[in-house]
Structures are given as structure tokens and as C-alpha cells.
């Protein structure tokens, strides 16, 4: 679960905060002028940069976030890992039912909100899509999830990985569960439930609603 804090661009933080990652943390290292991932095309950081460079943002706000995420990747060699104090890339996945009518949400123990599956990258992850699928599978307990083409959205939110705070630079996907499967709650969740996409509870956020709707659109268009 990657969204326990305040959100970017009207979803928890003012739009003017975009580009402020690391403002409260240590000074960022000098930004390299070389392309991210140059010389290490197999790395997760290189994959993240390629994904973001190739993604067309559907909103002006997300275009600013896309540029910010790429700048963060250029400035921090450890940008993919939780150890990166100013902030780090994470992946979130909206898991839909096979018919696209419902979304599976987890009750986040820290935020006390219903949110999609998601979390930190791990050293064994080869791609951002792999992170999204792994987190969705682990937190839903559902085997055989099918990842939709993505990313579908970007979001930045404040978290407390490194007090007083850090940021998650969240790259968001959608996935579809097989028919007639049962979700299994994980140790990371207080509860796990299916909700009709148009009836996501008030105790959630607009980024979750946006991601679920976009995933449904992609599934229907597929």
C-alpha cells in the first residue's frame, strides 16, 4: 500500500507543491546530464525512466508530475528504493473484477482509508510493471491477475518513511482478476473488500476513484 499520506496537485497538496520533492530533506546531488539508465539498460531505474519518457500524460497536472519524476530519477541513483530520503518511486494497482464492475480496495492501517494495492520497489523487480503486479498479487491474495496496459496515472503524496516526511512518486496501473476468485487479506491490511466503481466509499480519495475509472475504461476498450 503506497498511499498513506497527503496527495499532490489538489489531492492533499497545492498544485504549487509540484517539484518540491526533497525540499525538507538533505540537499539533492548535482543533476547528471546523461540519460537516466545510460549504460545499465536492464536496471529498474532505466525501465522507470523509459516508461515515463514514453507515457503521454492525460492531464496537465500529471505532465508536471511526469517531468518531476524524471528529474528525480536523474538526480538520485537510489530513486527507486525506499532508502532515498527525499522520495522514491512506488507502484499502485487498481485490481478490477473480471467484468470491470468492481474494484478491490484495502483498508490501510496507517491512513485509515480504502486504497488500491501498492508499495515499494524491491531489488528483485525488473520493471515498474512487475512491481505493480507483484504488489497487487501479494496484497490481494489473487493469483493470475492480468495487468492492463499502462501506466494509467501518476500521483505524488507525502509519507513518513523518513521523518519528518518523505514522498512517494507513485506510478499507477490497473489489473483484472480472474472470474470466481476469492481475495485473501494480507498482514498489511485491516480489511479487504470489493466495491462497485461508482460506489467507492467516502473514506477513500479522488486519486483512487480516478484510477479505478481509468482502469475500467482501458478494460472496456480492450
UniProtKB/TrEMBL annotation:
Annotated PROSITE patterns: NUDIX
CDD domains noted in UniProt: NUDIX_Hydrolase
Superkingdom assignment: Bacteria
Ranges where the Nudix hydrolase domain occurs: 86-217
Gene3D superfamilies assigned to the protein according to its UniProt record, in alphabetical order: Nucleoside Triphosphate Pyrophosphohydrolase
Protein name: 8-oxo-dGTP pyrophosphatase MutT (NUDIX family)
Amino acid at each position: 500500500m503506497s498511499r498513506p499520506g497527503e496527495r499532490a496537485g489538489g489531492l492533499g497538496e497545492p498544485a504549487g507543491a509540484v517539484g518540491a520533492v526533497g525540499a525538507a530533506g538533505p540537499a539533492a546531488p548535482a543533476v547528471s546530464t546523461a540519460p537516466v539508465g545510460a549504460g545499465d539498460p536492464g536496471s529498474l531505474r532505466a525501465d522507470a525512466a523509459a516508461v515515463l519518457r514514453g507515457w503521454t500524460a492525460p492531464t496537465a497536472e500529471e505532465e508536471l508530475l511526469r517531468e518531476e519524476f524524471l528529474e528525480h530519477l536523474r538526480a538520485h541513483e537510489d530513486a527507486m528504493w525506499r532508502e532515498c530520503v527525499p522520495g522514491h518511486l512506488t507502484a499502485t494497482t487498481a485490481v478490477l473484477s473480471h467484468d470491470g464492475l468492481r474494484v478491490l480496495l484495502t483498508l490501510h492501517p496507517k491512513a485509515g482509508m480504502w486504497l488500491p494495492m501498492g508499495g515499494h520497489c524491491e531489488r528483485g523487480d525488473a520493471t515498474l510493471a512487475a512491481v505493480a503486479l507483484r504488489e497487487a498479487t501479494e496484497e490481494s491474495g489473487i493469483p493470475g491477475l492480468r495487468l492492463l496496459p499502462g501506466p494509467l496515472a501518476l500521483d505524488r503524496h507525502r509519507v513518513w518513511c523518513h521523518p519528518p516526511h518523505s514522498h512517494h512518486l507513485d506510478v499507477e496501473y490497473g489489473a483484472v482478476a480472474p472470474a470466481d476468485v476469492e481475495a485473501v487479506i494480507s498482514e498489511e491490511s485491516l480489511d479487504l473488500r470489493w466495491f462497485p466503481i461508482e460506489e467507492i466509499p467516502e473514506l477513500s480519495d479522488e486519486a483512487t476513484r480516478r484510477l479505478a475509472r481509468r482502469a475500467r475504461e482501458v478494460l472496456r476498450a480492450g
